């Protein structure tokens, strides 16, 4: 008998006498043979072709707002405070009356100075008349030269007395004017430190009455570290950073709710020396504040704008992986194989990293799907489409903003 393979089955069989020798034939025998192995498809990954871009550099800093002019309201003469005219905390205009002192003693001094001036003028008139009489008599030898010299001296002394009286009157009138205290600038008024009836000593602490803070424009103060300044200088020398023409940076303020303050400012001042305690130097911008939305003492996020970084390579942040002590990206090469590349990341742009070294233009970086691949594996590369952001309408394919982390 014919033994069948265990994986074979006889569908129909019969014996047929053979002409040759009665060979037994097996007819219509079916076998289930193993199917050939099917090669799995290459895993799909999404890649981004990196190209150099010109990037707007945004230097982000925590800043504090300061009044551009905060002027104290101080009594310049001693006397009693009679009236407080302004409303504390309200907006005052330059020249608005804020305090009024008792004017009566100062008015009396003015009147006395006027009387003394009139008396001095009368003495001067008498001295002039006397001199005019003596001059011709002296020329006619009717009076001596000594009498003429005496008359001239009296006339000049009377003139000096008039000048002195006029100066005393001016001083008394100034003191009288100082009894009314005006707003020194346009701005928000401070609390009153003295009340009606208080005696104000012009040389004592009681002379301090209040202050006015000018907040339009307002100052934006922040600091730049020595290390960061040197880093920018090195980048500028190497061509990695381009400062605006004449270093004319502009500034914007980010409010606490994340919105951008509508008015931009400009660089107003930078300290000539470093603070030895912090290793930083102060930078100040000035920003318009017509609606008084910004107040002195507030902390805000500020951006210094104007610098650019040419030929920068940027990749989405999720494309950069941490492997031990180094950062890597996965690439798809011309053979559709996965490669591992060490990179050095720099600053960040929204949700993207700037790659300082390790990548060049034209390379395909895996952004999604790298979890299921390994080096030298064949993959199917699909185009990565970034998700739209709220700022996407403000960006172009060639210019993107970069925010630099503070040191």
- The CATH topology of the largest domain corresponds to OB fold (Dihydrolipoamide Acetyltransferase, E2P)
Q: How many separate domains? A: 3
Radius of gyration: 47 Å
- Output the strand order for the largest sheet: 4-11-14-13-12-15
CATH architecture of the largest domain: Beta Barrel
- Bin the helical content: 10-25%
List how many beta strands DSSP finds: 22
Q: N-to-C SSE series?
A: EEEEEEEHHEEEEHEEEEEEEEEEE
Mean pLDDT: 85
CATH superfamily of the largest domain: RNA polymerase II/Efflux pump adaptor protein, barrel-sandwich hybrid domain
Q: What share of the residues does DSSP label as strand, in percent?
A: 35-45%
Biggest sheet details: 6 strands, antiparallel, barrel
- From the helix content, strand content and strand pairing, which structural class follows? alpha+beta
The top level CATH class name of the largest domain: Mainly Beta
Helical stretch tally:
3
Structure, explained:
The structure is a single chain. By secondary structure, this protein is of the alpha+beta class. The protein has three domains: 46-57 and 310-404, conserved putative lor/sdh protein from methanococcus maripaludis s2 fold, CATH 2.40.420.20; 58-67 and 220-307, Efflux pump adaptor protein, beta barrel domain (Elongation Factor Tu (Ef-tu), domain 3, Beta Barrel), CATH 2.40.30.170; 73-212, Beta Barrel (OB fold (Dihydrolipoamide Acetyltransferase, E2P)), CATH 2.40.50. It is 20% helix and 38% strand. The chain has three helices and 22 strands. It has helices at 104-139, 145-178, 226-238, and strands at 8-10, 29-31, 44-49, 53-74, 79-84, 91-92, 97-101, 180-182, 187-189, 199-200, 208-225, 250-254, 265-270, 280-287, 299-316, 321-323, 326-332, 338-349, 352-357, 364-368, 380-383, 399-404. The protein is elongated, with a radius of gyration of 47 Å. Mean pLDDT is 85; it is low at 1-30 and 390-407.
